[in-house]
Amino acid sequence: MDAHELLGRRGFVVGAGSALLAGGAVTGAEAAVVDGPLPDFHPALKERLTFPLAWGTSPIRDFRAWRRTARATVEEHLLVERQDRVPFAPEYTGRTQGHEYTRELVTVSLTRYERVRGALLTPPGDGPFPAVLLLHDHGSKFDIGKEKLVRPWYDDTRLASAQAWADRYFSGRFAGDELARRGYVVLCLDALGWGDRGPLAYEQQQALASNFYNLGSSLAGLMAREDQRAAAFLAGLDRVDARRVAAVGFSMGAYRAWQTAALSDHIAAAASVCWMTGLKEMMVPGNNTLRGQSAYWMLHPGLARHLDIPDVASIAAPRPMLFMNGGLDTLFPAEGVRAAYDKLRAVWGSRHAEQRIRMKTWPELGHVFTHAMQDEVVSWLDDVL
């Protein structure tokens, strides 16, 4: 039996006809635990991480050769094979024609395992248009995925939930709709466990991830492959200028944005808001990463023996990249953000492309993607695409 047969229609691992994942809400006590058990030799393990494949440390001196080797190393650690030969076979439904842009739902095969539904927004006119692959966050909120960034016109229940999320993190604005108003084709799809592919319960994440590992696969690797394929699908649309496709995301979506830029040549630029750090600086007592659960969506086993987090993002160099963080964001300690930014700056500098990377800290903000931050991202996209 292969992984396809073990994936249920909503993405949950099943066996012998019954779900292996139990439901239920996380308790207040569980939610408060942010320090996972660390062994006494944890500092020794961190010291052994020297990231020998990082650009500038690696013995490979030709940058293009380094990029090929580093990308191949990341792809090997995804534990999910490439899906290039799987037909997308798109199906379009729910189309509504507005004055500012057209909205429709599209269902595609990103992998051979299941079909994925997303929102597709298109500005008026003939095109081809620049485009944005918009990647949603985690937030431990699974009833909505694509709806966090694109206003759901097809479901009033999700609209209420989505508006509350937008009010909390996005100054009440749906970033996807704003991008479409400003002339961009926008594609936003549900990651496994969210929206139409969920909803997952908080404590199910670890079980789902372990089942993937038991199957010789990876939850984070599947998400990376799906995002890679989504970029190819978007770039291949007749309405899109394939030379002007960007990836944009907040929080986990920011991680997905720079990761997709590293793994896909279809991405010409990427904007990542509130997800960049050095690994060692993030793996400290009190950090959310130690809780487990959400960490599995961004965990490629063994990759840290070769590359640090900003080293992976550097595979995208020298393409334009924008990184933003909030100075009050407790998820990403300031030391980790500085360490990562220093590494990124050095890589783009080595390519004489300092003007193509922008890194900004908003000292008064936490883990948010506000109206002002969104406006700056769109202005930056207008400049670089």
Automatic annotation (TrEMBL):
<protein>
    <submittedName>
        <fullName>Dienelactone hydrolase family protein</fullName>
    </submittedName>
</protein>
<comment type="similarity">
    <text>Belongs to the AB hydrolase superfamily.</text>
</comment>
<dbReference type="InterPro" id="IPR002925">
    <property type="entry name" value="Dienelactn_hydro"/>
</dbReference>
<keyword id="KW-0378">Hydrolase</keyword>
<dbReference type="Pfam" id="PF01738">
    <property type="entry name" value="DLH"/>
</dbReference>
<dbReference type="InterPro" id="IPR006311">
    <property type="entry name" value="TAT_signal"/>
</dbReference>
<dbReference type="GO" id="GO:0016787">
    <property type="term" value="F:hydrolase activity"/>
</dbReference>
<dbReference type="InterPro" id="IPR029058">
    <property type="entry name" value="AB_hydrolase_fold"/>
</dbReference>
<feature type="domain" description="Dienelactone hydrolase">
    <location>
        <begin position="177"/>
        <end position="373"/>
    </location>
</feature>
<dbReference type="InterPro" id="IPR050261">
    <property type="entry name" value="FrsA_esterase"/>
</dbReference>
